[in-house]
What does this fold into?
Amino acid sequence: MIRAAKYVVFVSALCPMVYLGWGAWAHALGANPIETITRETGVWTLRFLLLTLLATPLRRWTGWNDAIRFRRMLGLFAFFYGSLHLATYLWLDQFFDGAAIIKDIYKRPFITAGVSAFLLMLPLALTSTAGMIRRLGGKRWRQLHRLAYGSAVVGVVHYWWLVKADIRPPRNYAIILGVLFVSRIWYGLARRRG
Amino acid sequence: MIIRNAPTIRSSEITDENVYLRRREFILAAAVPALAAAAGFARGVTLDAAQPAQDQIPNLRKSAYTLNEEWNTYGDITSYNNFYEFGTDKADPARNAKSFRVKPWTVKIDGLVNKPADYQLEDLLKPHALEERVYRLRCVEAWSMVIPWVGFALADLLKRVEPSSQAKFVEFTTLADRSQMPGLRSAILNWPYVEGLRLDEAMHPLTILAVGLYGRTLPNQNGAPLRLVVPWKYGFKSIKSIVRIRLVDKQPTTAWVAYGPQEYGFYSNVNPQVDHPRWSQGSERRIGEFFKRKTLMFNGYGDQVAGLYAGMDLRRNF
It folds into this structure.
């Protein structure tokens, strides 16, 4: 049952990429397709990151323990879309101009934040296998994977800093992230007391 | 024995040094087309299949203001717009401005003029011969287009209303009608949208009031029925759907300066040397092109307009 559900989630999670690929081929991404690809891969990174962070609170709220079994896949999809987003920037925005990229990362706070959010995800993706969990030990692995929160926070900041005037979309992601934080703190306190 | 051979390579076969120095670009250019085509950038034609629904403008004159650059497609120009009164997504204006009423339309001209008036648009336009002006448009967001506008010199209108000697600036205002413009419900900018020019900028022959593009009346999303076009400034200076033109003696507070004075200046001349605080202005993506281009000083109109700013520090007066 969970196995089948995982297939469904996996195929669904690929849909944004399939849409972008088809859209690019069919000229259906609007007048500025590179901008569309950049924006969509970025937004989907954030969405998958938030979905990943939702797994634990969801289990606690609903008692549905299997929620946790989707977490790794969702996290890896966040990393997947983050990689596409970064690749779009490196290739289609900067055309692999190393000096310009380094200057950009240094000079533009929103680029600095974006690259940081990606780098925070990198060790999480690398240690996502069962073997790595075993090698690190559950406790250390869990501590390391709290970086996912850091990545999400920096990711929202990256989004916030790049919008020109309409901050509503990044603000909505910030609110969702805030709710997830509060739920985690709430649960932590309740456990300490109980 | 010394053998002196004449060089066997003809000079015509030697790669020009400039070309040689740009060899990486050519290698990239050769490698990229397949990928670019796959990514949807191969464009063969200029005019889209999408038939413009706007009326053809009669008696249109060609003008000397043209460019030896490919025009952007009608479809791109009318589907990718910043017109926050109709929403902040580029696709919003085309969607939300469909039923925008541009007839009847009144333009108030007041302030420091000898002949203030509330003009019906037809009366305002009557004495002016409309001509085609092909201009680059450079958005502050680092994309650009080439657009064949239809319009007339703003100077001709200003001369008609006779600015008084105290007039130093021109302030323009966009309609702010909540019943028609869904974007006004959110306070993203201080509505109504206000823009301004120094009087000499407004009188410059490149500065036009546009009523059309591609030989047809302006689509609503492009600022119908009357908009400003100032090709050497970032696009947001070219205010849309104008209802008021006021001559004043003080520099107007424009909508974007009110929003972020550290990010947007009154002048907002296209300037690759002065970055937006958050992003570079050194290059731009011409809509429809795969590679980015270098941004030109004054958007390539330096020969005509640099004199307006002689002696000014453009880094401070950004």
Summary: The radius of gyration of chain B is 23 Å. The interface with chain A takes residues 28, 38-41, 72, 75-76, 79-80, 84, 88, 90-91, 141, 143, 186, 188-189, 259-260, 278-280, 285, 287-288, 290-292 of chain B (CB under 8 Å). Residues 23-38 of chain B form the longest helix (16 residues).
